[in-house]
């Protein structure tokens, strides 16, 4: 019987210089809840399931986005709201201090300095250990860094959306953690992902998670899940090993006529092999 996979295979990363975590986490969005997804449900369930928390568990949550109705998410960066949100998270999670608190999204109606200033006050009061940002540009990161130390950035990034690649480069330079959100969306549009999954006998989602881990040492995927079996599948992705050709083809999107060093001959051979297997099956 094979051993149950663990996230340790992904290696570790330091958050803020004093918290070491596995480089594969669990996203709680699909539990439903927290300020922007519920409200409040996932934080309550996490506390019910895991409190008292193990010493090596690092919990991150967010403030600054509200959900006034179905399919509606609106930023709220007012200092009074951020304080209320943070203190509510502390109560629901049964924590005295939140290890990583992220500002969910800049609010166009509130100066960024006011929002980050409120979070800095909460950090100074000991209610937050480390501060992160989500959905930000480099200029917004720089503005926030002038107010409070920033340890992480969480922007959208996956095989189809690479707009934050320059942010990942910056995170590598400054040893910031990068948490990609929507990490496995639009996986099926990338042909080399499907080819690699077929070769390895794993799912395309596992291939994408392995590709993310290989993309940067500062990458910390936190895929969500709705079942224990799916969680184990995500964790097992940490042990998936892709070849350099596969990594390159996935990064290039698998387009043989796209400029760049993608090995299109290799890709064509792999696709032909997969199609041949399917015909024979």
Describe the structure.
- It contains 11 helices and 9 strands.
- It has 281 residues and is an alpha/beta fold.
- The protein has one domain (7-185, 207-240): TIM Barrel, CATH 3.20.20.
- The strands form 3 sheets. A 5-stranded parallel beta sheet has the order 3-6-7-8-9. It has a two-stranded antiparallel sheet with strand order 1-2. A two-stranded antiparallel ribbon has the order 4-5.
- Strand 6, helix 4 and strand 7 form a beta-alpha-beta unit.
- The longest helix is centred in the C-terminal third of the chain and has 17 residues, at 264-280.
- It is globular.
- Mean pLDDT is 87; it is low at 254-264 and 277-281.
CATH superfamily: NADP-dependent oxidoreductase domain
What is the N-to-C succession of helices and strands? EEHHEEEHEHEHEHEHHHHH
For the largest sheet, list the strands in their spatial order.
3-6-7-8-9
**Sheet/helix structural class:** alpha/beta
| Count of individual domains | 1
Q: Any guess at the CATH architecture?
A: Alpha-Beta Barrel
Number of strands: 9
Distance between the termini: 27 Å
Low-confidence stretches: 254-264, 277-281
User: How much of the sequence is in beta strands?
Assistant: 5-15%
Query: Treating each run of at least 4 consecutive H or I residues as one helix, how many helices?
Result: 11
CATH level-1 class = Alpha Beta
CATH fold naming: TIM Barrel
Binned, the helix content reads 40-55%
């Amino acid at each position: 019987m094979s051993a149950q996979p663990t996230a340790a295979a992904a290696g570790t990363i330091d958050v803020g210089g004093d918290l070491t975590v596995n480089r594969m986490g669990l996203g709680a969005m699909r539990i439903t809840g927290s300020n922007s997804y519920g409200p409040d449900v996932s934080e309550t369930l996490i506390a019910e399931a895991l409190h008292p928390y193990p010493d090596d568990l690092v919990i991150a949550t967010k403030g600054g986005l509200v959900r006034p109705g179905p399919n509606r998410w609106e930023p709220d960066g007012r200092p009074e709201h951020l304080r209320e949100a943070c203190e509510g998270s502390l109560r629901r999670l049964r924590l005295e201090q939140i290890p990583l608190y992220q500002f969910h999204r800049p609010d166009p109606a509130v100066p960024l300095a006011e929002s980050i200033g409120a979070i800095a006050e909460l950090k100074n009061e000991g209610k937050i250990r480390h501060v992160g940002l989500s959905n930000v540009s480099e200029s917004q990161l720089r503005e926030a860094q002038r107010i409070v130390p920033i340890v992480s950035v969480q922007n959208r990034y996956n095989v189809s959306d690479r707009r934050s690649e320059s942010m990942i480069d910056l995170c590598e330079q400054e040893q910031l953690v990068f948490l990609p959100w929507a990490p496995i969306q639009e996986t099926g549009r990338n042909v080399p992902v499907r080819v690699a999954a077929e070769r390895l006998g794993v799912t395309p989602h596992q291939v994408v998670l392995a590709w993310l881990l290989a993309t940067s040492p500062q990458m910390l995927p936190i895929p969500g899940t709705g079942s224990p079996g799916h969680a184990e599948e995500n964790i097992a992705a940490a042990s998936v090993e892709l070849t350099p050709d596969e990594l390159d083809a996935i990064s290039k999107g698998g387009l043989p006529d796209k400029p760049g060093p993608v090995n299109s001959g290799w890709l064509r051979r792999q696709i032909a092999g997969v199609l041949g297997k399917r015909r024979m099956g």
